[in-house]
Amino acid sequence: MRSPSLCLLAAIAAMAVTASDVKGRVFNRFVTIWLENTDYDKAAGDPNLSWLAKKGILLSNYFAVTHPSEPNYVASVGGEYFGMNNDDMNKLPANISSVADLLEGKGISWGEYQEDMPYTGFTGNEYRNQQTQANAYVRKHNPLVIFNSVADVPERLANIKNLTLFWSDLEAQDLPQWIFITPNMTSDGHDTSVTVAGAWTRSFLEPLLANDYFMKDTLILVTFDENHTYTRPNRVVGILLGGAVPESVHGTTDNNYYDHYSEISTIEANWDLHTLGRYDVGANVFSLVANKTKDVVRKHSNLDGVYLNESYPGIFHRKKWAPQPVPNTSLNINGRSVLPSVVKTWGGDENQKQTVYGGDLEIPSAANRPKVRKNSEGQSSNSSSNSSSPSSPSGPPNPSPSSGPSQSLDSRPSGAMRYLSDISCIWLVVLLVMAFV
């Protein structure tokens, strides 16, 4: 793994975005904490998670969208998992937008806090505990760094930090308005158990629930990436709590159908954002929010038959390739249209002939694959191709993952060149600090 220069690290740190204060309909801050690989019954029966549920609302029909981990994380911020059926070092092309684009479009600050990530903006595949060599940070649980539109932009990488910096930002009252928190591989239950994950989550949240700054108008979602038993429906626990949840509904259960795309749709509804034109558009908004935004919470036609346990073909599928899906730029939900930059990138009749998105609640799976559909412009409906044909004109095929060779001592600049580089670095950092102060 190539080590970044101190200059680059300082530059990235200097670009960190300060907190914003954009008012939402129900909440002004959204915090999501993701735990790992636990069946619904086990998670619901954990005493610490049960304690948290009594402080808010239990979502009893919340579903992951496939297996394994990485595609679920990607789906929660991208409105799609692009056929991903693995935890590889996948890199989503820069023409694929995410929740970061939606938030920035309205001036809403965002950040990710990753336990045991070695430094701000780290893009490597993993980082182990240096004493025990145990699994610690893993890229597959860091959703936004998987998008090249984030990983290739230093200003955005500056928003992806080690979890220890959460407490610094909390003390400075400088937390972003959208926060994604990933515990390490021990704390999240991946390498341990739901007992460990529940205990960690309660110990993390309990003091925050008494913090006025953190709690004010904050909605917290605690959930799991996927269930553990792949032969069972992919239902996981979801818990809503925080200052945005009225005490009158503490300890209640919401039985409506939700999935990981509901995270994005709820954010879009709350702040009246644009959409990505993908599966975010049709996803149910959490009823706590939908009741205020007048979004319709739709009923699933067959809750007992929801089986989202295997990925459909796509550009990141190991065995079954399919073209990069095109957002439906004509979709509109409750007055929310598709992000203009997405329309600019993906609009036009030829691109739109390939869209598979129609604003439906019920999403595809390996058994019920996405189909190119007739949209509002009257294009014909055809089955999607799974053959190894060229990429669609709108996007490149799956890029080959590559971390690049480690930089050797012989390849580093020496002598006067290192001196000049250091001087340039100092001026760069000074200019960046001045720009962001």
Write a concise synopsis of the structure shown:
With 437 residues, this protein is of the alpha/beta class. The protein has 15 helices and 14 strands. Keywords: Hydrolase, Signal.
List the helices and strands and how they pair.
Blueprint: H1 6-14, E1 29-35, H2 40-44, H3 47-53, E2 57-63, H4 69-78, H5 99-104, E3 110-114, E4 126-128, E5 135-138, H6 148-151, H7 154-157, E6 160-162, H8 164-171, E7 178-182, H9 194-208, H10 212-215, E8 218-224, E9 235-241, E10 252-259, H11 261-271, H12 287-293, E11 332-333, E12 336-337, H13 340-346, H14 349-352, E13 371-372, E14 382-383, H15 415-436
Parallel strand pairs: 1-7, 1-8, 2-10, 3-6, 3-7
Antiparallel strand pairs: 2-9, 4-5, 8-9, 11-12, 13-14
Helix pairs in contact: 1-15, 3-9, 4-11
Please explain how this structure is put together.
It contains 15 helices and 14 strands. It has helices at 6-14, 40-44, 47-53, 69-78, 99-104, 148-151, 154-157, 164-171, 194-208, 212-215, 261-271, 287-293, 340-346, 349-352, 415-436; strands at residues 29-35, 57-63, 110-114, 126-128, 135-138, 160-162, 178-182, 218-224, 235-241, 252-259, 332-333, 336-337, 371-372, 382-383. It has a single domain (6-406), classed as 3-Layer(aba) Sandwich (Alkaline Phosphatase, subunit A), CATH 3.40.720. It is of the alpha/beta class and 437 residues long. α1 (6-14) runs parallel beside α15. The two termini are 32 Å apart. 28% of the residues lie in helices and 15% in strands. It is globular and about 55 Å long.
